[in-house]
Amino acid sequence: SAYSAAEGWKSFMNIVVESVNSIYFEDATAFVNTTIDLPLQLKNEDDITAVQFDVYLPDGVTIEKTSRGKYNITFNEDRADNSTHTLSSALQADGAVRVLCYSTDSELFWGNEGAIFNFPLEVSDMEEGDYSIIIKNIILTEQSGKKHEIPSMTSTLNVLAVALGDCNRDNAVDVADIVT
Description:
Blueprint: H1 2-16, E1 21-25, E2 28-31, E3 34-44, E4 48-56, E5 61-63, E6 74-75, E7 86-91, E8 97-102, E9 113-123, E10 129-142, E11 147-150, E12 153-160
Parallel strand pairs: 2-12
Antiparallel strand pairs: 1-3, 3-9, 4-8, 4-10, 5-9, 6-9, 7-8, 10-11, 10-12
């Protein structure tokens, strides 16, 4: 009957619109032999207290490391900081960098939209072109312990050989380029 079909559609629609949570990088542009800060965005309708995901970078792009050899991923302090959350990352066997962030006090990420972490990406001397940055195995967790498994996300890193106007190829556009 039409009623049964409508009830089925209503149930389907409830699943589709249950919640809207996403984690992603916006597309970015970088020049070879430079480091850029790439903010990781979290858009959440639910009260999220923890995140876990794997980042796959193209060959020639790495996450900057600290002097102690740890990935230098940092908080965007508009959404969380070291007083509310613990941030950890490690290289996986498949080449991904797994990132975990949680609060032992079940503190929420502040706000519902915006960058939560900054990833300093080092771009080597690589070919110009568009490269994929992929986030997989995304799990967002609410205070209640309910977890949301989010589909993989892909963004594009456009790599350019040299900045327009950088005639002397010193990765800066300045007066020195005029006399070159």
